[in-house]
Design goal:
Layout (H helix, E strand, L loop, with lengths): L2 H23 L5 H22 L4 H12 L2 H5 L1 H14 L4 H6 L3 H169 L2 H26 L6 H19 L1
């Protein structure tokens, strides 16, 4: 038999034996049932080791050292060494007896009663300690978890306090900002109201100026209309004066013509009368001429305008002068 194979097999069955004995100790399994299961595998392994060594006790010792030193044996070296020492103590110096008459049932029962149960107790104690340790670790973990939760809660509380203070500061800042904004809006409204007042004043002044300008325009229009009317009236008056003057000139011309004819007639008469009578007639004629001149002067005194009136006066003076010379 190869030692590594036996080491693996022995490690596996010894773990089961210890667990079965532990189950008996914890009242989970009946002891007879547990021992019967243990005895079957134990006798099988012990017989294989003894038969493989031809019952030679020294060879069994050397073989078991090799089995327990294997990698798998080191995992449970205490039980492996205990199995080897128990088998060595149970054997005798007779190889034939060991091969043919060795009571493996007795060996396994002794091994169960001593080493397996001792291992089971140790395993139970270890399990109990493991349970206690696990419980302690669990308590420790719960305590640590509780501390973490408390720390987290404290951090959340502190953060909430800081957030509350920050929110309060933000609210105060927002209040100040809104107050400043309201003040700015009030100032803006005041400025707008002042500007509106100024605009209203300017509009009133502009309206007054516009009204004044309109009045001035109306007055100018009226003045222009009056001037136009006056000019038309003047033109009409001048035209009427010119017409009257023209009529007067025409009448004067006719009078001059008549006077001329009278002078001619008078000249003819003078040629036929004496000197004294002629002198008297001339004087009378001169008086007629003067009366005619006075009449013409009255007509010429009419107030006229324009070059036509002046020309008429000139013509009248020319006629009068010619009349006097005649």
């Amino acid at each position: 038999m190869r030692p590594e194979v036996v080491s693996q097999l022995l490690t596996s069955v010894e773990a089961k034996w210890t667990q079965e004995a532990l189950n008996v100790m914890t009242k989970q399994t009946d002891e007879d049932t547990a021992f019967d299961a243990m005895e079957a595998s134990c006798a099988k392994v012990s017989k294989a080791v003894v038969q493989g060594s031809d019952g030679d006790r020294l060879r069994v010792i050397e073989y078991m050292k090799s089995v327990c030193s294997q990698k798998n044996g080191k995992a449970n070296v205490v039980m492996c060494t205990a199995f080897a020492n128990g088998l060595d103590a149970f054997m005798i110096g007779d190889d034939v007896y060991n091969r043919e008459q060795l009571d493996h049932h007795e060996f396994c029962h002794k091994f169960w009663s001593t080493d397996v149960q001792t291992a089971a107790k140790a395993a139970g104690i270890a399990a109990e300690e493991e349970t206690k340790r696990a419980a302690a670790e669990e308590v420790q973990l719960e305590a640590e978890e509780k501390v973490k939760r408390l720390a987290a809660a404290a951090e959340v509380y502190q953060k909430a306090q800081m957030d509350e203070k920050a929110a309060q500061k933000a609210a105060e800042a927002e209040g100040r900002r809104r107050a400043e904004k309201a003040a700015d809006i009030n100032n803006l409204f005041a400025m707008v109201a002042q500007k509106n007042h100024s605009v209203t004043v300017v509009e009133n002044k502009t309206s007054n100026t516009a009204q004044s300008a309109e009045k001035l325009t109306n007055a100018t229009t009226v003045t222009q209309e009056n001037s136009s009317s006056l000019a038309v009236a003047e033109n009409k008056t001048e035209t009427k004066a010119v017409q009257n003057t023209t009529k007067a000139v025409q009448n004067t011309t006719k009078a001059v013509q008549n006077a001329t004819k009278a002078v001619q007639n008078t000249t003819k008469v003078l040629q036929n009368v004496t000197t004294s009578n002629a002198t008297t007639l001339v004087q009378n004629t001169t008086q007629v001429h003067e009366n005619t001149s006075a009449l013409l002067e009255k007509h010429v005194q009419i107030k006229t305008q324009g070059n036509l009136t002046n020309q008429a006066r000139g013509m009248l003076r020319f006629v009068l002068n010619r009349t006097k010379q005649a």
